[in-house]
Amino acid sequence: MYLHLGQETILRTRDILGVFDLDTATISKHTRDFLAKAEHEGRVTNVSPELPKSFIVTAGGGVFISQISAATLKKRSGFVDALSTDIK
Fold first, then answer.
1. Residue 76 β-bridge partners
2. CA angle, 81 as apex, 13 and 75 as ends, to 5°?
3. Tens digits of per-residue pLDDT, 18-37?
4. 17 near 33, Cβ under 8 Å?
């Protein structure tokens, strides 16, 4: 299954390690250091020029910054999961 992160960016759900709220997750110095290191290494992809609300970490080491909230992304992923369990 896939998760639409905004604009023209879609990720396979099996490649996603986590979806995080940018406001609450960046309170931790460890998270800020992680994001700074990923950006320095060129692993960060900004999905939209709009105000960022969440970031997504992938198994390949990529980090995607999205204008869509973590709660909305969670709902989208749950909707996809619900669809796949209804189909038999």
1. none
2. 85
3. 999 999 998 999 999 999 99
4. no
